[in-house]
C-alpha cells in the first residue's frame, strides 16, 4: 500500500513534468530523498521489560529552505510510507509557496498501547536519535497521525535540553504555553474549508446553492476529519456522514457534529455513538441513523466527499461508484492515479491533498516565524494570514490549470515543480 503511495506521487510528478518540460537533471534529483535515517529506540516499559521501536526521519529535498514535515506514530509506519509522505511535503510546501523543503518522520508503534510515561520516553528518545539533523534552520517537525501538542512539548523540551537553551522554533504544533498558536490545531481543516469555499463560489454547479443544500461525507474523525466536519457544520453545510476506523454514522438530514464529537469524547468510536441528526422542521418523518462501513461512506450519495483518514481510499475498484461531485482530499494520498482518471472521466473534481490540506504546514510556518522573532500572533491576524496564503495558492494553481488545460492536481504539481526546478537551477544543483 505505502510503496504505491510513493509510486503514485512520482506518477503525478511525471505527468506535471511532461507539461512544463523541466530539465531532466532537476527532475532526476526529485525522484529520491536526499537523506533517510532509521533509528532504533530501546524503551524501558512500565513492567520492567525492554522494547525496541524503529523510527525514521526522511529528508526529501531542501532546495527551498529547511526541511519541514510531521511525525506519525502508527503500527504500520514504514520507511516507504515516511518517504512517500516526505515527497508529498516537498511538493506541498513548494505548491503553496512556503520557504521550506519537505521531510517526514514516524515511529512504528501503537501509542494507545503505551502508558503516558512510556510515550514520553519514546518521544524523547526519538529526538535524541535525530538531534544532529533537526533544528530551526535544518528540519522542523510537527504533529501528524497520532501525535499531538503534548508530544511536541516533550520533543521541544528534549531538543532544548540537548541544545542548552530553549529553542521553541525547533518544532511546531506546540501547546500555546510553549510558543504554539491557538489556531494551529485547526489550521489544516480551516485551510481546507477556505479552499473548498473558494472553489464552491467559483463553480457553476455550486455557486447558487446554499450550504444547507450541500451534503458532505467525511471519512476519518481525528484531528483533521472531526475539525473539518465541525467547521462545515457551523458554516451551515449538511454533514450527513462521518466515520472512523470502525465504521460510519449516516443521517440524510445531516448530523449534529457538536453532539457527535461530545459523545465520541465520552464513548470513543464514532459508530458506537448515539446518532444526533439535525432537527429539520419541515421534515416530518423521524428517520433513524444508519451505520455504514467506512468503505460504504465513500460511496454515499453526497455532493462533497472529504477523505480525512489514510492513503489509497479511492481506487480503481471503487472510483466508478463514487457519487460525490467533488472530492476534497484532506488526508495525504487518498486517491490513486487510476482512480483519479476514472473520477475525471466522470466529471468529478478532485481538490488535491497538496493544496487542500496545506493549511497545517502554513499554520506551522507562522508559528515558526513567530518563534524565530519572539513574536506572538493574534487569532485574527493568524486566521487572515492563513486565508491569504491558501487563496493565493488556490488562485495560482487554478491559473496553471487553465494555462496547461489540466486538472487541479497536475496544476498543483506544475506550480511546485516550477518553483523547485528553478531553485535547483539557481543553486547550481543541476
Ligand atoms: P488522526 O489520527 O487524528 O485521525 C485519523 C482518523 O482516521 C481517526 O478517526 C481514525 O479512526 C480514522 N481512520 C483510520 N483508518 C480509517 C479507515 N480505514 N477508515 C475510516 N477512518 C479511518 O490523524 P489526522 O491528524 O486527523 O490525519 C488524518 C490525515 O490527514 C492523514 O492522512 C494525515 O497525514 C493528514 N494530514 C494531517 C494534518 C494534521 O495537521 N494533523 C495535516 C495535513 C495532512
From TrEMBL:
Q: Which UniProt keywords apply?
A: NAD, Nucleotide-binding, Oxidoreductase
What is a biological process (GO) this protein takes part in? Answer: L-glutamate catabolic process
InterPro entries membership: Aminoacid_DH-like_N_sf (IPR046346), Glu/Leu/Phe/Val/Trp_DH (IPR006095), Glu/Leu/Phe/Val/Trp_DH_C (IPR006096), Glu/Leu/Phe/Val/Trp_DH_dimer (IPR006097), Glu/Leu/Phe/Val_DH_AS (IPR033524), Glu_DH (IPR014362), NAD(P)-bd_dom_sf (IPR036291), NAD_bind_Glu_DH (IPR033922)
Q: Name one GO molecular function term.
A: nucleotide binding
Which positions are annotated as binding substrate? 68, 92, 364
Q: Where is this site: Important for catalysis?
A: 144
Indicate yes or no for the key word NAD: yes
Residues annotated to bind NAD(+): 188, 223
CDD domains, A to Z: NAD_bind_1_Glu_DH (cd01076)
Show the active-site residues: 104
Is Oxidoreductase set as a keyword in this record?
yes
Q: Name one Pfam family in it.
A: ELFV_dehydrog_N
Glutamate/phenylalanine/leucine/valine/L-tryptophan dehydrogenase C-terminal domain: residues covered: 181-428
Would you identify the family this protein belongs to, as annotated? Belongs to the Glu/Leu/Phe/Val dehydrogenases family.
Q: Which PANTHER family match?
A: GLUTAMATE DEHYDROGENASE (PTHR11606), GLUTAMATE DEHYDROGENASE 1, MITOCHONDRIAL (PTHR11606:SF13)
What name has this protein been given in UniProt?
Glutamate dehydrogenase
This protein's species is Candidatus Terrybacteria bacterium RIFCSPHIGHO2_01_FULL_43_35
Amino acid at each position: 500500500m505505502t510503496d504505491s503511495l510513493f509510486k503514485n506521487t512520482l506518477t503525478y510528478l511525471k505527468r506535471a513534468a511532461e507539461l512544463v518540460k523541466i530539465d531532466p537533471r532537476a527532475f532526476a534529483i526529485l525522484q529520491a530523498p536526499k537523506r533517510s535515517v532509521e533509528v532504533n529506540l530501546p524503551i524501558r516499559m512500565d513492567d520492567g521489560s525492554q522494547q525496541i521501536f524503529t523510527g525514521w526521519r526522511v529528508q526529501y529535498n531542501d532546495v527551498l529552505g529547511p526541511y519541514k514535515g510531521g511525525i506519525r506514530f502508527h503500527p504500520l509506519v514504514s520507511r516507504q510510507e515516511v518517504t512517500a509522505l516526505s515527497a508529498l511535503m516537498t511538493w506541498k510546501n513548494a505548491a503553496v509557496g512556503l520557504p521550506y523543503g519537505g521531510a517526514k518522520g514516524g515511529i512504528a508503534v501503537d501509542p494507545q498501547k503505551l502508558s503516558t510515561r512510556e510515550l514520553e520516553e519514546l518521544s524523547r528518545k526519538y529526538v535524541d536519535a535525530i538531534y544532529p539533523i533537526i533544528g530551526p534552520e535544518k528540519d522542523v517537525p510537527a504533529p501528524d497521525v497520532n501525535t499531538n501538542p503534548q508530544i511536541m512539548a516533550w520533543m521541544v523540551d528534549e531538543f532544548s535540553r540537548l541544545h542548552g537553551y530553549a529553542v521553541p522554533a525547533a518544532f511546531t504544533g506546540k501547546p500555546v504555553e510553549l510558543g504554539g498558536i491557538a489556531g494551529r490545531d485547526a489550521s489544516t481543516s480551516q485551510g481546507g474549508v477556505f479552499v473548498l469555499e473558494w472553489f464552491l463560489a467559483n463553480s457553476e454547479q455550486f455557486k447558487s446553492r446554499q450550504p444547507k443544500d450541500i451534503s458532505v461525507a467525511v471519512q476519518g474523525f481525528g484531528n483533521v476529519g472531526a475539525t473539518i466536519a465541525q467547521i462545515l457544520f457551523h458554516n451551515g453545510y449538511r454533514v450527513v456522514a462521518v466515520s472512523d476506523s470502525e465504521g460510519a454514522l449516516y443521517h440524510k438530514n445531516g448530523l449534529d457534529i457538536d453532539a457527535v464529537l461530545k459523545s465520541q469524547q465520552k464513548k470513543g468510536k464514532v459508530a458506537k455513538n448515539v446518532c444526533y441528526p439535525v432537527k429539520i422542521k419541515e421534515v416530518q418523518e423521524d428517520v433513524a441513523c444508519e451505520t455504514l462501513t467506512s468503505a460504504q461512506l465513500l460511496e454515499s450519495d453526497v455532493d462533497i466527499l472529504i477523505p480525512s483518514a489514510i492513503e489509497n481510499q479511492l481506487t480503481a475498484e471503487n472510483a466508478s461508484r463514487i457519487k460525490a461531485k467533488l472530492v476534497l482530499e484532506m488526508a495525504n494520498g487518498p486517491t490513486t492515479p487510476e482512480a483519479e482518471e476514472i473520477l475525471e472521466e466522470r466529471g468529478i473534481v478532485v481538490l488535491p491533498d497538496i493544496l487542500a490540506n496545506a493549511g497545517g504546514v502554513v499554520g506551522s510556518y507562522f508559528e515558526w516565524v513567530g518563534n524565530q522573532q519572539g513574536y506572538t500572533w493574534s487569532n485574527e491576524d493568524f486566521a487572515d494570514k492563513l486565508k491569504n496564503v491558501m487563496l493565493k495558492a488556490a488562485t495560482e494553481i487554478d491559473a496553471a490549470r487553465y494555462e496547461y488545460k489540466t486538472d487541479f492536481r497536475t496544476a498543483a504539481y506544475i506550480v511546485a515543480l516550477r518553483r523547485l526546478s528553478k531553485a535547483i537551477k539557481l543553486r547550481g544543483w543541476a
